[in-house]
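Subject: for your reference before the review

Hello V.,

The reviewers asked for a structural picture of the protein, and I figured it would be easier to keep everything in one thread rather than splitting it across files. Below is the amino acid sequence we used in the manuscript, unchanged from the supplementary table.
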Amino acid sequence: MMNSLLLAWRYMSFHRGSTAVLVLALSLTIFLPLAARWGVQRFQQHALQRATSTPLVLGTKGSRFGLAIHALYFRGESPQAFHLQESLRIQESGLAEVIELHARFRTRGATIVGTTKRYFELRGLRLASGQPIRRLGDCVVGAAVATRLGIQPGDRLLSESDSLFDLSGPAPLNMRVTGLLARTGTSDDEAVLCDLETTWLIEGIGHGHAIQGDAAEENHQHSSGRQYLQAHQEVTDENVNSFHFHGKRSQFPITALIALPTSDKSEALLLGRYLAPDQTLQMIRPIEVVQELLHVISHLRRLFDLSILLLTMATALLAALVLMLSLRLRQREMRTFYLLGCSRGKAVQVVATQLLLVVLIAVSLSFLAASAVSPGLEWLFIRLMST
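And here is what came back from the structure prediction:
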């Protein structure tokens, strides 16, 4: 057996080009379905884990999938906002603990998510460096955003105003980065997190009196128009006390609400509250929505598996053809084996050992490549799902 292995290896070493082509063809055939399956499995595990830790989500009526994706991944089109009063009603009922989310604005390609400290506890978020949010205008940045933008604690991020051509609208907010979040492998890595008041400031509900010239004394009507303000608003330790909000807090907007029911009965009562046809809000179970999405993905994976199966069969036939042609070209080599006293069985053993080595190398390369690529495929699936 060792002699057969040595002869097979010598042959492969001499014919490096043809051996490499054969190994590459087999590796790709094995790698594609393996990487796709592992990537989908990682994505399913990630999606189910995040959805399971989010029992209920409240938002305006519309697409259930859009609401779930917005609350879980902060992606897609932001649903219509509703009043914070609904959150206060749920808290007063004692049926659930609530975590408000306000995710309408972006900064340099990342979603700005206004929320509460309870959200950090729910997702298990911790700081890798810097300090937590300390005051209005502060934010902490997800690991992926920090890496992509080269952000460090102490840097500034300017919110992207949704009213760029409206000169009477609120100016963008220049937020102070106080900390960087540790990498979690979830959508929180792609977000910029701050408190709700900061997003309401971006919304234009609140403002400070950073007014140029003598207008501060002459115009005390709390105008936040750009004709009175600088190019952007910026909260500092010196002017933080001058910032304030207008209107009732209960009427301030949020785009979604995570509800953590106190019991199964409380969960059923909460779901029943929003079943009336005249309700403008809907309460969903994210786990049910995500399972529906994964069911669709499983059907697509079967189609992909079928196409890969056909590709594998075609590759196997081509490999068989190459092997037969190779044996024809190696007739003089086989004849030399016979003249040297090797039996036909020994010659077949050498060829079979060579084929086995090619398959083992291809399988090893495929497993290594699939294990390296599957995390990237998981991220791609999350991006595609939440776009």
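For the response letter, the relevant points are probably these. DSSP finds twelve helices and 15 strands in the chain. The longest strand covers residues 96-107.

Happy to draft the paragraph if you're swamped.

O.
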